[in-house]
Write a structure and sequence with these properties.
It is built from three helices and three strands, in the order αβαβαβ. It is α/β, with parallel strands linked by helices.
């Protein structure tokens, strides 16, 4: 079971005793990380400091809940 399978985060949330709707998927790959989060019912944060670039045409179509420049921004909000 790998990304972007929706079973992966659902299983992890279940093992932690939380619902998928109470979790967030953070990742730098829109085609796997954000897609998996969306399929699983998680909120999604796309980090632009990795693989996916700011001008990637897939961003509007996959519609991450938040787009940030780097990981530290997560802790500054």
């Amino acid at each position: 079971m790998g990304k972007p399978s929706a079973d992966h985060p659902r299983g992890g949330a279940g093992r932690l005793g939380v619902r998928a709707a109470e979790t967030v998927m953070v990742g730098d790959r829109i085609e796997t990380d954000v897609a998996m989060g969306k399929r699983s019912g998680l909120a999604t944060i796309l980090v632009l400091s990795g693989i996916t670039r700011p001008d990637d045409p897939r961003i509007p179509g996959l519609a991450p809940d938040h787009v940030i420049r780097s990981d530290p921004e997560i802790f500054c909000r």
